[in-house]
Amino acid sequence: MSEISRMVEKAKTASAAMALLPTSVKNRALKAMADGLDRGGKDILAANGRDLAAARAKGIAGALLDRLMLNEKRIGEMPRGLREVARLPDPVGQVISRRTRPNGLRILKVRVPIGVIAIVYEARPNVTADCAGLCIKSGNSVILRGGSEAIHSNRAIFRRIEAAGRKAGLAEGALQLVWDTDRRSVDELLGTPGGVDLVIPRGGEGLIRQVVAKAKVPVIKQYKGICHTYVDASADLKKAEEICFNAKVQRPGVCNAMETLLVHRAAAPKFLPAMARRYAQAGVRLRGDAPTRRILRGMPVQPATERDWATEYLDLILSVKVVGSVGEAMEHIRRWGSSHSDAIVTRSKPNAARFLKGVDSACVYVNASTRFTDGGQFGLGAEIGVSTDKLHARGPMGLEELTTYKYEVTGTGQVRR
Amino acid sequence: MSEISRMVEKAKTASAAMALLPTSVKNRALKAMADGLDRGGKDILAANGRDLAAARAKGIAGALLDRLMLNEKRIGEMPRGLREVARLPDPVGQVISRRTRPNGLRILKVRVPIGVIAIVYEARPNVTADCAGLCIKSGNSVILRGGSEAIHSNRAIFRRIEAAGRKAGLAEGALQLVWDTDRRSVDELLGTPGGVDLVIPRGGEGLIRQVVAKAKVPVIKQYKGICHTYVDASADLKKAEEICFNAKVQRPGVCNAMETLLVHRAAAPKFLPAMARRYAQAGVRLRGDAPTRRILRGMPVQPATERDWATEYLDLILSVKVVGSVGEAMEHIRRWGSSHSDAIVTRSKPNAARFLKGVDSACVYVNASTRFTDGGQFGLGAEIGVSTDKLHARGPMGLEELTTYKYEVTGTGQVRR
C-alpha cells in the first residue's frame, strides 16, 4: 500500500468520527489550532525563510515571491481566520427540508460532511491553515498537498495546527499534509477512483487544468474570472463610473476584478472620455474596439483583438467594447465570459431583469461592483474558493458548500405496497 | 465540425431560451408531447417490433428482452408520466435564500437550469420520453443517446415528442436524439470538456462504468444498490419480518431492494427461523455466515463468502449475517455497502439515532423498508434516477436536482472598500 493510499484510508476512518464530532469540540480544536500558530510564529517565519531563499536562488521574484512570503502580519491572519471560523454556525446536522408522507414516513433531508477533501494548492502557505479550518468545521477530513516552493512553510504551519487540533479532540488522520513533494503523490491522490470524495485545487489556471486533466475523483474549481461590466444606455453615469473604477482598480489581481467593459453606444460618447481619464490617473491601460478608439481619439488606446475578449489580465489592463443593446452585451458575455461575475449598470428595470435572468454566470449584478463576489462579502463568513462549475457549488463556497446531505427516514414499520 | 459538436452547440443555444421559458409554455409542450405519443402508439409499436425481432435474432431473451418490449400499457405510461410532470411545480426561479447585506446589497440565490444534459441509456425505450419530460420541465436542453438495441423504438418515440414539443413552443435543439448508433458518438459526447454540462447514465453497472471511465464532463450516477437491513436486539420482530420481507421480495430486481440482512445475535435465534420459512415460501434462497447456518440448520442455506457481501443480486437471493452489536452492523455496512439505502429495525432510540447519524448512505431508514428510496415515494413527484454520488445530488433525483443556482445581486451603486 502506498503512502497516499494509507493517508486516504486514515482520512476515511477519521471522517466517520469527524461527522459525529460535536460543534463544541470542533470549535475548541479550531481555537487550539489558532493558539498553536500564535506560539509557533518564530518557527514558521524561519521555515518560510528557507522557502524564500530557495525561491530566490531559483530566480523567482515579484508577485510569485510575494505570494510565498510570510511576515508577522500575514502569520497573524491565520489564527484570526481560524477563530472566525470557530464562531460561524456549524452546517452539519442542519435540516434542509422535512416532510411527512401520507403513509406516516418522516423524511428529513439533513446536511452532512462530504467525507475526505483534498486541497491541492501552490505558493500561498496560508492556504494550509485556512482550508484546514474550513474543512474541519464542516466535519470533513482534509488532505493538504501544497506546492514544493512552500513546503517548509507548509510543514511548519501544519505541525502546529495538527498537534494542537489532535490534542483538542480531532480524530487522528482528520488533518494530514502530504509530506513529500513528489509529483506522483498528486497523481495518485487525483487518480484513484473511490479515493478522496472531493478535490479542490487552489492556484493559477495552469495548476487547475493539470488537476482536472488527471482527476478521476470529483473536482470543484474555478478556471478564471473574465468579469464584465455593461453600462446601459439608461445608466446613472456617475454610479457607472464609481462601479467601473472599483471593479477594475480596487484589486486588479483577483478573479472578481473586471476585465472587459461593455458600453452602450448611446452612453459611450459621454461616459468613456471621463472614465478613461480616471483610469489613466490610476495607471489603467485600455484596449478598445474601433468605436471606443474613435471616441477616445487622442488617448493611448491599443486596438482590442478577439484575444483580449478571452484574456484574464489580472492586471491594470482593461478591454473596452461599444455595443448596440443589452442583448448584444449579453451575447458578448455568453461568448467570451467565464460564468463568474458580470454586472449591468442601468436605470431600466426591464433591462436589469433581462440581464439578471439571461446571463448564465455564478453571480450577476445590477448596479454594483463585481468585486463583491466573495464569501465574506456575501455573508457566508469565510470561503474556501469561488466555483465556476455548475454542479454542487457555484460562486463563493463557504462551509455549507463543503457539505452534502442524506435522507433520514423514520417509520413505524412501513412497507411498500 | 462533427455531428455531435453541432448537436451540443444547438443544445447550448436552445438552453438560453429554455432557461427563460415560462412555466405555462413548458407545461403546454409536455402535454402536447403526451398527445403526440397518444396519437403515435401504432407507429411506436411497429418500430418496437423491429427492435424485438432484431434482438431475438441475436438470441436476446428473458429480462433483457422484457426491458426492451413495449405494449399498449407501457406506451400508455409515457404520456401519463409527461402529464404528471406538467402538473409538478416548476423549480426554475425558486428563491433558495435571500439576504440583504449591511451595505444594502440584496443577494438572491435563485434556482436555474443546469444547461445541457445528456442521458446515455440502454434498453428501456420509455427513458426517451421520461427523461425528456423531466429535463424540459426543469428548463434544460437534453441530448438523448439510447442503445442500439432500442434504436427504432427510441426514434419513433422521439419523432412524436420532438415535433409536438417544438410546435408547442420549445426552442429548436432543446430536445435531440443521437440518431446513429455509432459508439464514437458516445465517446465524443462524454469526452469533450466544456461540452454538455452533465451526463446521467441510465442502465446496468457495466454501462455506468464505461461512461465514468470516458467522461471528461460531470456525471451523476448510481453504480449499484447493496442495501442492508439490520434487525437490532430490541426490534419488534413482527415489524422486522414485514420490513425484511418487503425489502427483499416486493421487487427484487431494483436497486433499493435488500441484498444483505444483518441480525443481532440476541434476536437471531427467534427471528431467523420464522423469517427463513417465510422467505422459503416466496422462493428466496439464503446464503448465511456460520452462526446463521447453525440457527437455520436443516434448512437449505449456502455458506456466504466475502463475495456475497459485495454482490448486488437483483434477484431472490439474500445473504444473512449475525452480528454482535449495532456498531458491528454499521461497520459491515461501511465496508461492504454502496451508500445507497440501509435500514435499522429497532425499538431503541439511541441505537436508531446512532444508525441514522453514523451510516453514510444517501437514505438511512429506521423501522421502514429500503424499497421507499424513490422519487415518487419521497414526494418528489418523479425521478430521473437515484444518485450514489455525494456531490450535487444524493439519493432520489427529481426536478430540483436537475437545477443549479445563481446569485442575483442588486445594488444602488455599491463598490467594495
SSE blueprint:
The structure is a homodimer of 417-residue chains.
Chain A: H1 3-20, H2 23-39, H3 41-57, H4 62-68, H5 72-87, E1 95-100, E2 106-113, E3 116-121, H6 126-137, E4 141-145, H7 151-167, E5 175-177, H8 183-191, E6 198-202, H9 205-214, E7 227-231, H10 237-249, E8 258-264, H11 268-281, E9 285-288, H12 290-295, E10 301-303, H13 306-309, E11 317-323, H14 326-336, E12 341-345, H15 349-358, E13 363-368, H16 375-378, E14 385-387, E15 395-397, E16 403-414
Parallel strand pairs in A: 3-4, 3-6, 4-5, 7-8, 7-12, 8-11, 9-10, 9-11, 12-13
Antiparallel strand pairs in A: 1-2, 2-16, 14-15
Overview of the structural elements:
2 copies of one chain form a homodimer. Chain A is an alpha/beta fold and about 425 residues long. Chain A has 2 domains: about 240 residues, Aldehyde Dehydrogenase, Chain A, domain 1, CATH 3.40.605.10; about 150 residues, Aldehyde Dehydrogenase, Chain A, domain 2. Helices cover about 45% and strands about 20% of the residues of chain A. In chain A, helix 2 runs antiparallel to helix 5, helix 2 crosses helix 7 and helix 10 packs parallel to helix 11. The longest helix of chain A has 18 residues. The radius of gyration of chain A is 24 Å and the shape is globular. The mean pLDDT of chain A is about 95. At the A-B interface, helix 1, helix 10, helix 15, strand 13 and strand 16 of A face helix 1, helix 10, helix 15, strand 13 and strand 16 of B. Strand 13 of chain A pairs parallel with strand 16 of chain B, so a sheet runs across the interface.
